[in-house]
Structures are given as C-alpha cells and as structure tokens.
Amino acid sequence: MHTLPKIIVPPLKCQGIKTKLVPLILANARIPNNGVWIEPFMGSAVVGLNVRPKKALYADLNPHLINFYAALKASAITPEIARAYLEKEGCLLAERGEEYYYSLRQRFNREGNPLDFLFLSRACFNGMIRFNGKGGFNVPFCRKPQRFSKSYITKIVNQIAKFYTLLQLFDWSFICQDFEQTMNSATENDFIYCDPPYSGRHVDYFNTWTNADEERLFKCLSATQAKFILSTWHSNKYRSNDFLTSLWSRFQVITQEHFYHVGAKEDNRNPMLEALVMNFIPGCGKIEKPKIVQPSLFDMAAQPLC
User: What global pTM score does this model have?
Assistant: First the structure.
C-alpha cells in the first residue's frame, strides 16, 4: 500500500470538496507532461493544487472562485495582503459581532471583493458557499465573533502562501465559462478532471445541475480525445446514481466510501460511496461494474487506495 501524501488544503472550501479523495484521484490521474491539466469545474481547486501540473486551465461558472484565484495569480492578493486584511476585519467582527458579518456580506454582494469572499467563506455557517437566485451570497453567520484568532489567521495565510508559491512556478490560467467551452480546447495530450455538481444533490445559483447537463457532459467526455476522470456519486444508504448505469456504464468505474459533514448535527454525518469514472484502465483501486448497491454495503470498510 502506498504511503498517503500530505494533502495541501486550499484557502477556499466548497461543498463536496474532494480533499479526502485526492489520494485516490492522484493514484489514477495521468498528469500531462506536454499537455494541459483541464478542470471545467474548478471549485476549491484542491485536486489541481495537489496534482501540481506544469500547465493548467481552471474554469468554473462561479465568478467569485475564479476572481479570488486570478487575484492571487496577479499578486493583487498576496499572503501579506491577506494577513493584514483578515487581522483588520477579524477585529471588527470581534467588536461588532453578527451585525458586522451581515454588513460585510452586503458589501461583498455589492462590490464582489475577492478578499471579502475569503472572509465570508471563513466566517459563515459551516463554511458553506451558497448563492441565491439573484447571485447574492446568502449563508448566515456562524455565531463565533472571535473566530479570527491569530492562529486561525496564520492557518489561512499559510494555505494562501502555498497556493501563491505554486502560481509563481507553474503556468495556470483561470477563466469563468461553461464546461463545454472549456473542454472544446482539449487535445489527446491533455487530461481532464471533472467534478460537476452532483445530479439530484446540492445546487445553488452557480451550482445548478440538471439531467440535461449530465447528458451534455456525457456527450462532451465521450467525444474528447483527452483522457479524463469524472468524480460523481455512486450511492448512499437511500438511493443509487442511475446515471452510472444509464450513461457512464461504457467507462471504467472505481469507488471509495467516505463521509460528508453537512449541517451542525452528528446525525448529518452520512456515508457516501464516491465513484471515479474514466476512459482508461485505472492504476489503483477496485474496478467495479456499475450496479444498484444494497444498503448492507455500507457496513464494509472503505476500499483501499491500492
């Protein structure tokens, strides 16, 4: 069994972040030497951050994710700038509490400052990123006015510093556009990693996903010359992902179980069987023929990485 690498955690966190699945993805991904690593659904960028490709194209429909990382690339945000900002805003939050959080949220929804976005993602309830029908950030306050302690700020700044350093070393681009536009540029020398919103699960203004979107993604990946990995859900104790049998069955599928933490109660710590779909023979993990999974499978231990 391989020794698990230490995972670099990004400064922004999103629902469905793939931190715990990174080792499995890394074990199977084909990192391009002469091509481009392409992520049509960048999200937090945790996968690309740990792959560390020489050249990458990161895309997402959420402009605030793109703006934050583009600001890092342009040095409009640096670790030093972020520290000064978080110390200032953290003090104001400690003094004024919940009222200040909502005033800053209004400021962000009006102006779209990437640093305000970072602050909200760390001060809001459960670290969620969610937007309403008008595109406004609408997650409530976490009710911890003293949240931005010196140690917490240092933790965030260190995460920014790691990402910032890699941006100086590699040729990474960030763009806000639809996944089909992003994948149209892929060649046989490139590698595509897709982490779309899960059909039938969490969606918001920037994170909407329909059956038609899943079918459009299937057509794009079926036609691409590049190798790809698609992250999706296989099943939970209530139901299974029908798309694995109706659409994705022609490809290789491997699975791994892990837990999601959504909400404030321990009861919301539910197991999910995650799936990686790929158009090549995987190098690591158990190959599984898509099927309807019975609830008893969730008594099994997580599948080994290798």
Answer: 0.85
